[in-house]
Design brief:
The chain is an alpha+beta fold and 106 residues long. 42% of the residues lie in helices and 17% in strands. A hairpin with a 2-residue loop joins strand 3 and strand 4. The N terminus is likely disordered.
Length: 106
């Protein structure tokens, strides 16, 4: 089965019947990007080494948002693609917010 993801800006007030996340807005132009993926195909998951995780966690403790130049350095240092680093930080921020909500972090 094929699903479509619709990348939209929630702030536009435009309703999207598909799953969506904020993307871009230029002036009053609303912009929607569709990408198809096959739900039956196994998802690729990056398996990070202990060293990679330690470096990424240390960087996260320094700054919750990785800068482009720093992500390039980390990419070369850890041999991880830049988009994977950005996704790791995004997921780690989500986990951090969840820990705060649950009271695990004071």
């Amino acid at each position: 089965m094929i699903y479509w993801d619709c990348m939209c800006l929630r702030s536009t007030g435009i309703k999207c019947s598909l799953n969506f996340e904020p993307d871009r807005k230029y002036g009053d132009i609303f912009y929607c990007v569709f990408s198809a993926y096959d739900s039956s195909a196994p998802r690729h998951r990056t398996a990070f080494s202990q060293h990679q995780l330690a470096v990424l966690e240390e960087e996260f403790q320094t700054c919750k948002y990785v800068e482009r130049s720093r992500s390039e350095e980390l990419s070369e240092q850890l041999d991880i693609p830049k988009p994977t680093i950005f996704i790791w930080f995004q997921n780690r921020r989500r986990k951090y917010r969840k820990e705060i909500e649950c009271g695990e972090i004071g």
